[in-house]
Every structure is written in structure tokens, then in C-alpha cells.
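Hi there, hope your week has been kind to you so far. Do you reckon you could talk me through the fold, stretch by stretch? I've dropped the whole record in just underneath, so have a look:
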Amino acid sequence: MPVDEITDPDDDRIADYRALTDVELRTRWEPPHGLFIAEGELVLRRALRAGYPPRSFLVDAKRVGQLADLDTGTAPVYAATPDVLERATGFHVHRGVLASFHRRPLPTVPQVLETARRVVVLEDVNNHTNLGAIFRAVAALGVDAVLLSPSCADPLYRRSVRVSMGEVFAVPYARLEPWPDGLAQVRAAGFTVLAMTPAPDAVPIQRLTPAQRDRTALLFGAEGPGLSRGAMAASDLRTVIPMRRGVDSLNVAAATAVACWELGRDDLP
């Protein structure tokens, strides 16, 4: 595996990795250029297994051997000292391995729903950590896909990918537009749209009927404001995870995990 040494953090060959901590800059750079960044060996290996074509690899010079068994194809492998890596990326790359990958075209909503039984729908979830945790829970708990409102964060942003442990690559997702009118597509496909809310008069999730549990779209809002009135009105039923000790709600990622487990528990062996 040929390796090119990088000694200048401003080297144009590693432009994909510049200022990785600047969310606004990365948002303007990555999707328009059709790329995303994977951080850590485990994550980049999962991206490769999922079929994402690599653009390049950037590693700590002492960790080049970690990639020795990979088929990197025509993608160049760049190596640098930790100091050069930090000056280029804007943070200490303690995992020592980064990779830039080509994005793939997103599937359409009908394509995602065609073979799905349960999906998670997110409105305005723009915290990358929460989004990554949601994808990890969805993958682990047997949900088939995720639908995102237009204002949701990018699932392939580095932090989301890292928090998901690369499981974002295993879960089909699509953008649902227009919002919230696009929820009509989900209902027309035969899904019961369950609006998750802490409202005390909502139906406890464990009390749903078999018909309501069968083909479901779990609808979650952003941390804090929750679901909009329009999204709530476009749902079939308001559903609550009962709380104890006066706690009014869970973090959106935790709530997603609990709701996904509850609806999938009948499928467990």
C-alpha cells in the first residue's frame, strides 16, 4: 500500500480534512462536494463494507499498519505526524485514522418505505450527537429506516457517524418533503404515524393495540421544543412513554431507543 507523507497542514491534497470542527464550514463543504468524513478504524471499515467508495485516507504515521489489510483501491493514503494532523483538522485526532468517502444518492421515500415495517421519522433533530445515537438505536433494535424532515442535521456529518459507530451506514434513510405534508405519503403507504409526546393525556406506548403496533412510523421532535403542531396534526395518534419520579421527558435519543424496543419486543425470540 503506497503511502504519501504530508508535512504541510495546508497541503491541498488533504483539503477534505481541513477545519473538521467548524460545523458551519463543513456543512457548506461536504454535501455540495459529495463527501463525508469517517473517524476511527472501526467506522471507516464499516463505511467500506457498506460500499461507500473512498476518496482518500489520512492517518497518523505510526498507525499506517492498521490499514495494511484494506483494499484502498485507487484512493491515496496520506500519513502525517500528530501535530500536522491537529493543525490541519483543528483537533487532536486521538483515534489516529480518518478517511474521506464519496456520498451515494439518497433513496426516495417510496423506495425506503416499500420494504419497511417500522420506521422512525425525525422533525428538526439538528444535534449531531443525538442523531448519531438515534441511528445506532434504530440499527440495534430492528427498525428498518429513518425519514428526516428537511431541517434535520446531516447523518453523515463526522460526529453523527462517530456516535452511531458507523451504524448510520446500515440504516436506509431519506428526506421527507414537503414538511409536514409529506407525512401523508407515510400514511398512504400503510403506516400508523405515532407522534411521540410527553403529554399526560397521550396513549401510553405499551397500551397500543396490535393493529396500532403492527406497521408503525414513530415520529419524534427536536430536543426541547418537541413536535410542531403541524406534525402532530398530521399523525394518527399521540403516544407517550410513561415517566416516574416527576421526570417529564427523556432525551430524544433515549426516547427513540425505548420506543423502538417496546414496539419490537414481540419480534424477539
The longest strand covers residues 54-60.
